[in-house]
């Protein structure tokens, strides 16, 4: 089934997305620091910015295959948290009063960005080369975050809002590493499990519904 119409991306959308990024980039740099842009979702933002202006199927397919399933889980976790429950803790920061409502509002892109990308692929189609490209990018990011970025730590010991446990390479909590298995076993899950359980299923769905001719 092919949903790709290969139509131009509206200029108004390009300008609106660019305006959003023009606000988000300096705010995130000031409040979180440059290492925040090692997160998969923030890398996806930058690919999307390039993709909407070039209308390049590969540039838009790369972030879609990478964040589609994780961000769907983000939406579920956020909905459960809004309802008063707690699923994984992934979206706890959205209810952290140390962060302004404006800052948390910017982070709502985690919810709408995957939906926007799906719509954009109806204009450009899905380029299957996105799977190996994103897998390579994600592998480098996971290794960098595990070996060079700060591990989880209690909020009282952190410096401001600088990110820790980027891309969940130590577990799902930013407060302490996971205790279910050895740390290197979790790292292996991130390196092998993410591509097999998150990126490959998204790739198969996108190739089916948004295939290029």
In a nutshell, what does this entry contain?
The chain is an all-alpha fold and about 210 residues long. The protein has helices at about 10-30, 40-55, 55-80, 100-105, 110-125, 130-150, 185-210.
Question: Could you explain how this protein is built, in words?
Answer:
There is one protein chain. With about 210 residues, the chain is mainly α. It has seven helices and no strands. The model has no long low-confidence stretch (mean pLDDT about 95).
Task: Give the key terms.
213 residues; mainly alpha; 0% strand
Q: Strands, helices and their partners?
A:
Elements: H1 11-31, H2 40-54, H3 57-82, H4 101-106, H5 109-124, H6 130-148, H7 183-209
What low-confidence regions span 5 or more consecutive residues with pLDDT below 50?
A: none
Please state the structural category. Answer: mainly alpha
What is the overall silhouette? globular
Q: How many β strands by DSSP? A: 0
For the biggest sheet, the summary is: none
Mean pLDDT: 93
Name the beta content range.
under 5%
Give Rg in angstroms.
Answer: 17 Å
End-to-end Cα distance? 11 Å
**Helix and strand string, N-terminal first?**
HHHHHHH
Total of DSSP H or I helical runs spanning 4+ residues: 7
The percent of residues in helical segments reads: 55-70%
């Amino acid at each position: 089934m092919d949903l790709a119409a290969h139509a131009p991306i509206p200029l108004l959308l390009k300008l609106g997305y660019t305006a959003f990024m023009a606000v988000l980039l300096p705010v995130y740099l000031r409040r979180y620091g440059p290492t925040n842009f090692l997160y998969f979702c923030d890398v996806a933002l930058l690919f999307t910015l390039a993709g909407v202006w070039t209308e390049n199927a590969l540039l838009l397919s790369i972030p879609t295959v990478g964040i589609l399933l994780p961000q769907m889980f983000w939406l579920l976790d956020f909905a459960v948290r809004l309802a008063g429950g707690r699923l994984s803790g992934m979206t706890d920061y959205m209810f952290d009063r140390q962060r302004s409502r404006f800052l948390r509002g910017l982070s709502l892109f985690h919810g709408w960005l995957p939906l926007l990308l799906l719509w954009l692929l109806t204009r450009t189609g899905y380029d299957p080369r996105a799977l190996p490209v994103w897998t390579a990018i994600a592998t480098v990011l996971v290794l960098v975050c595990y070996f060079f970025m700060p591990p989880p730590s209690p909020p009282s010991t952190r410096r401001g809002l600088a990110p820790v446990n980027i891309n969940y390479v130590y577990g799902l909590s930013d407060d302490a590493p996971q205790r279910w298995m050895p740390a290197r076993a979790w790292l292996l899950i991130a390196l092998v499990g993410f591509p097999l359980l998150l990126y490959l299923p998204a790739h198969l769905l996108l190739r089916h519904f948004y295939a290029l001719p």
